[in-house]
């Protein structure tokens, strides 16, 4: 096989097979192409190689994150400290009240002019000094902290939506009558894809490309929950979803043969290494 031009027939191009493997074709195109390459050994080898590549990339998420070299961390601290000293120097000390010129009042008829006292402008409020430089931490700790912030913001947003009420005046009521509050309807978590009736196709590509532990929070918890369902292989992609209106975490693993994938959906509240009931769905699909 030579070249990457998307040829519609054998020898099949790598680009066309990669689009098929990634789910970028329409359902009709995918069905037609799979039927045509079913007995093509070279095309099946390319699909198998793509499966192996995704599996290898997924395994990288379990490797330890290397710490930043000490010399680079020290240089970053020096740069941050110098920047903060520069900002503090620009702020300066609070200013001394300045006199503001006031036009003298005209004397009224029959009265001598009165001497005007100078008015003082209020002192400017001092600016807050910049925060002291923080220690450099490893990238894994920053990632966990960022995920924690994201989960906290989503939780706060959900709490605000849960307690929001709408107050509307009743038709024909007087000005002193206040309408009864009505609770806002419950909505799905923002940005979380919906899965209904076991139809994982619409969210497959998004989850396959993601590495989001969601409520599981860590690779250890994901591994334990998969083990509870008898799954020992490493997922290629995983992300939060809502399965039939229920919060869950969907993971995608190699299905054991070319073009097949295993979809395992976990209940983050109940799953664990000894609880197979925490697995909400376990299916093999072809893509």
Short description:
Among the domains are: 14-60, no CATH class; 194-286, no CATH class. 36% of the residues lie in helices and 14% in strands.
Topology, element by element:
Layout lengths: L13 H9 L4 H11 L3 H19 L10 H22 L7 E2 L18 E2 L18 H25 L1 E2 L15 E2 L10 E2 L5 H8 L10 H10 L8 E7 L2 E9 L5 E7 L12 E8 L1
Parallel strand pairs: 5-6
Antiparallel strand pairs: 1-2, 3-4, 6-7, 7-8, 8-9
Helix pairs in contact: 1-3
Note the main attributes of this structure:
287 residues, 5-stranded mixed sheet, two-stranded antiparallel ribbon, 7 helices, extended
Please write the string of helix (H) and strand (E) elements.
HHHHEEHEEEHHEEEE
Mean pLDDT: 73
The poorly predicted ranges are 129-140, 145-188
The number of helical segments is: 7
Profile the largest sheet: 5 strands, mixed
What's the helical proportion of residues? 25-40%
| Rounded Rg | 32 Å
Secondary-structure-derived class: alpha+beta
Distance between the termini: 22 Å
Tally of strands: 9
Share of residues in strands: 5-15%
Give the overall form.
extended
Order of strands, main sheet, comes to 5-6-7-8-9
Protein name: Anti-sigma factor
Keywords: Membrane, Transmembrane, Transmembrane helix
Transmembrane segments: 147-168
Q: Overview of this structure, please?
A:
The protein has 287 residues and is an alpha+beta fold. Among the domains are: 14-60, no CATH class; 194-286, no CATH class. A hairpin with a 5-residue loop joins β7 and β8. The strands form three sheets. A five-stranded mixed beta sheet has the order 5-6-7-8-9. Mean pLDDT is 73; it is low at 129-140 and 145-188. The longest helix has 25 residues, at 139-163. α1 packs across α3. 18% of the residues are buried. The chain has helices spanning 14-22, 27-37, 41-59, 70-91, 139-163, 201-208, 219-228; strands spanning 99-100, 119-120, 165-166, 182-183, 194-195, 237-243, 246-254, 260-266, 279-286. The chain crosses the membrane at residues 147-168. This is Anti-sigma factor.
